[in-house]
Amino acid sequence: MITEVLSVRSAVLSLVLGFTGLSLQAAQAQQGTGMDSVIEEIVVTSRYRAEKLSDVPDSITAFTADDIERHRIERINRVAALTPNLRFSDDQEVGISTLVIRGVRQNRGTGQPPVSFRIDGVSVTNNLLTTQDLPDIDTVDVLRGPQGALYGRNAIGGAILVSTRRPTKEPEYRFRVTAAEGNDFTVAASASGPLSNENLLYRASVQVQDRDGQLENAYLGNQKVDFKKSTNFRGRLLYQPTERLAVDFRAQYSDQEGGSGYFMPGSEGVLPLPPPAAPIFFGNPVYEIQSNRIGESFVKFTETSAKIDYDFDWGTLTSITSFTDVDSGNDQDLDQTLFDAINIIVIDESTTFAQEFRLASDADTSLRWVTGLYFFNQDRFRSLATTFLGTPVPPAAQDLKLENYAAFGNLSYDLGDDLELTVAFRYDVETPEDTTQGKSETFRELQPKASLAYHFREGLLGYLTIGKGFRAGGFNNLSAGSNFAPGFDKESLVSYEVGMKGSAYNGRIRGGLSFFYTDYTDQQYFLFDQTGTQANINVPKSEIMGGELEIQAMPTDSLRIDFGLGFTESEIIEYADIVGVLVPAAEIIGSKVPGAPEWSLNVGVQHQVALTSTLDLVSRLDYEHRGKTYWTLDNLDTQSAYDLVNLSFALEKERWTSRVYVNNLFDKDYIEWFFAARFIGLPADIAWPSAPRQAGIEFSFRY
User: What is the pLDDT of residue 269?
Assistant: First the structure.
């Protein structure tokens, strides 16, 4: 394995040298022309204070307001497509996603996500909400590596931090309308300004989408299956009665309804017919949508929060209080055939209360610190009712209560003019109680983190980080007849990372390079079976290593190049036979950790030219390469490498933008997610289809 890692690193370094060399030559050629364009210096608040991105000793991908508009970032799936070693897959229903970051993967059902997902500093406290629409957003930061010390529960793989546009002191209005293939129409609007005086500001945004869809069930009259209707409203009130006190009230309502369960049989199944030229599943070609019903699903939620900041002469005290109510459901064909064999109805309801207190020192001292307390309480009911050949099976019902208490801290100290030491910790006590099974267990974990950061010169930072991540265990949602164990254990990892980031040629080039090694213990892995049970199991020991390279370059005033590369290499070191898993341990030990592409590459080329003194033409081409992906623990099922291309042309003025775009330009078919029959006990492997090519037009207006 060491030889493989060295060869991977050699390949990465070759790409670094080649790409950087070309960019540097282009920048050098422009230096004598008097041009002064630079890559924007991004400011982040990942350590709860404003800092240059190049000064933070973490692997971070950051998106500005311009990036969000030109990339058309409206959900986390688009962020993932532009971020090395981050993969986001939609599948099964409107609230379900599988997110993988550096090989750390999503746990579905009543499991937990692998990242801390925060919007305006408020934790998104339910895994069904990672698929929500994100209208009127201002910045997105993706932090890779364990981030529990500052971002809390489930930050074992990283954190995704979203900031919406703030209320403004001057009246501001925005409007956007989009029309695309599949009768896909979206209307979004926002308004902002003062209420009565500048001490009380508001911002309100709304987005409505209505889509018929493009994917069809050929065996049910070509009915569309990927339809969606959604409404999202967000309101903010910012009250600042004094220079020291700020109160930020936030409320959100979201309602998504859409297609569900349009998996495709991906094999001949357990009862194959005599093989013709193409594989056949119960008389139909495989890798076609062929269920006996059009599935439907929904996710509705309301969230209210209050963030209060009080500034002392030496620091800031912050209180964040949030309440979330989620109601979701799913009605689908589980066997994916024209026969009325196995159907399932899912009900998932939860209420969550969370409270955080945080105290952060000023940034302009040699010793900077953050400390805080956190409390989380969730009541969640989940029922999976299955019918088999028309006969109801006792539902897999679970009433689960979760409580989490945590204390955390972060301290940074300047050991010299160029050397910074950061130490951090988080101590979690999490107790899931399954009142249905009458079981309760408490998981405790200390998550330390330390890093050294050295400024070799202005604009060039090197760092070394060691950190521990943790995700609590829990209880499986069992149905009668399932062989899975009633619960699963906590998981933890230790991550070692070395990196470098900086800028060159007067800001024309910015970038970062990082390598990491992860020692993983009891990694949680999601499975389900034909009874309707959704379960998590533990893989005792595995290791993951890899790296990321990101470069932004402006060779000329009008040309910008964005380059991102990620790779992972992994191995399952220890595994023992687990009740409910139909594949023996001997076929799993030595395999790669499934879910993440071995390689991910994204290249964006943006050209901007002035047509008149007030009108610009902005052309953008984005290329994405996703390497081979292993779907299963035994690595027998894979998605081969594939390439995607997006293209857009926009006319931009100060107050309006008109854009035409094409996503998946060459209409590439691939598998978004996959479950193997030998693990889940269904008649055949099932695969989630990719989104087809979609062309659209968009118009936005700002006043």
Answer: 62
User: CA separation (Å) from 654 to 228, 614, 615, 700, 703?
Assistant: 33, 7, 8, 11, 9
Look at residues 104, 88, 84 and name the one whose alpha carbon lies nearest to residue 96.
88
Q: Which of 42-51, 86-95, 277-286, 372-381 has the lowest mean pLDDT?
A: 277-286
Q: What is the pLDDT of the chain when averaged over all its residues?
A: 89
Phi, psi angle pair for 22, to nearest 5°: -65, -45
Asked if 147 contacts 155 with a C-beta cutoff of 8 angstroms, the reply is yes
Residue of 520, 528, 547, 525 lying closest to 595 (CA atoms): 525
Q: For residue 549, give every residue at least 6 positions away whose Cβ sits within 8 Å of its Cβ, in sequence order, or none.
A: 12, 15, 16, 84, 511, 512, 513, 514, 563, 564, 565, 566
**How do residues 594-621 score in pLDDT, each as one tens digit?**
988 899 999 999 999 999 999 999 999 9
pLDDT (average), residues 550-577: 95
Give pLDDT, residue 46.
77
Output the six-digit token pair for 481: 């007849």
| Total structural domains within the chain | 1
Burial of 647 (0-12, 13-18, 19+ CB in 10 A): middle
Q: Tell me how far apart the alpha carbons of residues 324 and 301 are, in angstroms, rounded to a whole number.
A: 7
For residue range 279-298, what is the model confidence (pLDDT) as tens digits? 777 778 889 999 999 999 99
- Specify the CATH number for the domain of residue 669: 2.40.170.20
CA dist., res. 26 & res. 556, Å (int):
8
Query: What's residue 278's pLDDT?
Result: 56
118 neighbors 151 (Cβ within 8 angstroms): yes
Nearest-angstrom CA–CA distance, 166 and 201 = 9
Give every CB contact of residue 548 below 8 A, 6+ residues apart in sequence.
59, 84, 85, 144, 512, 513, 514, 564, 565, 566
DSSP code of residue 477: B
Rg (CA), the chain: 25
* Domain assignment of residue 521, given as a range: 2-702
Beta bridge partners of 346: 330, 384
List the one residue out of 263, 335, 213 whose CA is nearest residue 96. 263
In sequence order, the β-bridge partners of residue 162 are: 119, 140
Kindly report the backbone phi and psi dihedral angles of residue 482, in degrees, each rounded to the nearest multiple of 5, phi listed first.
Answer: -80, 145
How close are the terminal C-alpha atoms of the chain, in Å? 57
Which residue did the predictor score with more confidence, 419 or 582? 419
Helix-strand-coil split of the chain, %, nearest 5: 10, 55, 35
Q: State residue 569's pLDDT score.
A: 96
* 666 φψ region: left (φ > 0), alpha (ψ -120 to 50), beta (else): alpha
Q: Closest Cα to residue 599, out of 634, 624, 623?
A: 624
